[in-house]
Amino acid sequence: MYKPKTMTILSLATGDVLMALFPMVVTTLILFNAFIPPSCSFNVTYTIYMPYLITFVFGLGLMVLGLEIVQHHKISSLSKNSKLICSLIASSIPWILGLIIILPLGLANIDMDTCKNSQTIDQFKALIVLGILLPACGAVITSFIVKCIDQARYQQLVSSHPQVMVDLNTGDTAHDIDNGNPHGNSFIVPIPMGNLGTADDLSLDSTQRRNRLLVISIIYFILVTPLTIFVLGFAMNPNAIRLGVVASATLTRLVYWLNVIRSVITPILMYSYSDK
User: Fold this and answer.
1) What's the angle, vertex CA 231, arms to CA 225 and CA 234, rounded to 5?
2) Membrane-crossing residues (predicted)?
């Protein structure tokens, strides 16, 4: 119950599903019902939350999950209360950093009375890079490193104990035939692995967790980075080729809705991940 992985996953997925519904509904009303936001604070909240804050929190959360997977054997040895504390800290870190870094940056130079936005281009670029690009790249890199650590541990185990076969379905180790063994050939003996971690770290379930984290990170990267590329490479680049009004508006909506779709797809994957 008190697993940092589980609480972080539920925190990210629930935050995406519930909180992202707000900007998704508002966007739909604006596009199809000519809805006008009733206040400046409403408009600013809608504008900042989904493209930047939740994207930043989700990417950072994937990195936290990667760290939890690597340190799984250490966390498992903690007491119940210690696990609860680790769970709360792990699930809170992405949200706390998002509120400290992204929210002030998104609200900078915005007059709530007149709803005038005086942000400079550099400030907006910083919001794009910190809120979208860095978390997306960091999530993929972290997931890839976690996957490589998994492979390195397995290779090290095989080279250190060539006489031992690791059963990836159970995480246990089976020894050679011993006719003197009263339990027969099915007797399974765990071996100490030292710095390699526990057998569970090298099990099929552990490998699947790493693979699933990498897949989710890649999907997240693919769906959120087009908005960054479009804004930094086209919309805010004076040397870029200019498109017509219709083409530009269509492309803007396309990359924006990719970000919206991400808030639907990745939570589903995260919930399925929490059950494994």
Assistant:
1) 115
2) 12-36, 48-70, 82-106, 126-146, 213-234
